[in-house]
Every structure is written in structure tokens, then in C-alpha cells.
Amino acid sequence: MGNIELRQGHYAPAADHLRHSLTILQRLGSPITEAHALDTLGILHLHLGEPEQAPTYFREALTRFIRTSERTGQALSINGLGEAARAIGRPAEALAHHTDALAIAAASDARHQQARAHAGLGHTYRALDDPDLARIHYEQAHATYTELGMPEAEDVRAYLAALRGHLRRDRP
């Protein structure tokens, strides 16, 4: 329910459902599912405009994913750390996290997380005023999201359209 509420933009009910789920999962001893709930709480805080709180949840989720050797989950949480770093205004951290997430996702064939990492790198390079590198990563994200039939493809298409006319021609 928490994920559904989050996707619909109903953040207060999402938080209630996620925290309740987390309590139950901790009692059941389900570390992977618990990690997913923690990761989703991190995403919720990003949507609430509280990026300073999100890394705590992403790190807790990452710890559980590492403990259980869940590589796709590791990419998931590391991408979350990148998104939080960018939102807080730490682009160097964002680049490092998304680059790490991309490597893990590629090694584990987690295509959705590869696309998410490329989109994160695109956002960060755009924020760093490097539209050429932003475009390269957005194109890769768009291709992967499109191949997977994911709605994020449309968002990335819009980011690419916004970059048109802003590409620097002084690079080889």
C-alpha cells in the first residue's frame, strides 16, 4: 500500500503504511523486504522535499542489501543516495553514487537501475552545466527505459528536449 500511495502522491498515508510495514517486517526478520521498505521511505523523503533525511533510510537499506548479497538492491539504494546528494547540492557525491550504482547494476544485469543511474548522471551533469555529458546519459536512460516499456522514458525524453540548443560545440 505504501508504494501505491507514494506513486499516487499521497505522501502521509504512504508514510503510515511504510512505517507500519517496516515494523512488521522487522519482527518477521525479512531483511530484503525490510530493505525495500527502508529504500521506499528514503524515496518518500525526497518527494516530501526532505532530502537531508533520505540518506539515513538509503544507508540502512544498503546495509541490509549488502548483508544479503542482493546486488540489484544495492544499486537501488546507491541510486537513492545519488538522488539525495544531488537534491542536497552535493553533485560530486551524486556522480560517485550514480557511477557506483551503474557499475553494480551492469554487473547484475539490473536494467531498470542502469537506466536510473544514467538518468541520475544526466541530471547531475545538467546541474553542473555540462549538457553534452547530460545528453549522453539521458540518451542511454531513455533507450533502456523505452526498451523496458517503463513510463520514465517520457520524463527522460522531456529532459532531452530541454537540452536541445544548449549543447556545446567546442568539445571534440
Account of the protein in words:
It is globular and about 55 Å long. The protein has 2 domains: 1-69, no CATH class; 94-171. The model is unreliable at 168-172 (pLDDT under 50). Helices cover 80% and strands 0% of the residues. With 172 residues, the protein is an all-alpha fold. The chain has helices at 2-7, 11-28, 31-47, 54-67, 71-88, 91-107, 111-127, 131-148, 152-163.
User: Using only CA atoms, what is the Rg?
Assistant: 16 Å
* Residue share in helix: over 70%
Order of helices and strands: HHHHHHHHH
What is the overall pLDDT average? 89
InterPro entries: TPR-like_helical_dom_sf, TPR_rpt
Pfam families: TPR_12
Looking at this protein, list some descriptive labels.
mainly alpha; 9 helices; globular
Briefly, what is this?
With 172 residues, this protein is mainly α.
Strand-helix topology:
Elements: H1 2-7, H2 11-28, H3 31-47, H4 54-67, H5 71-88, H6 91-107, H7 111-127, H8 131-148, H9 152-163
Helix pairs in contact: 2-3, 3-4, 3-5, 4-5, 5-6, 5-7, 6-7, 7-8, 8-9
Pfam families: TPR_12 (PF13424)
InterPro entries: TPR-like_helical_dom_sf (IPR011990), TPR_rpt (IPR019734)
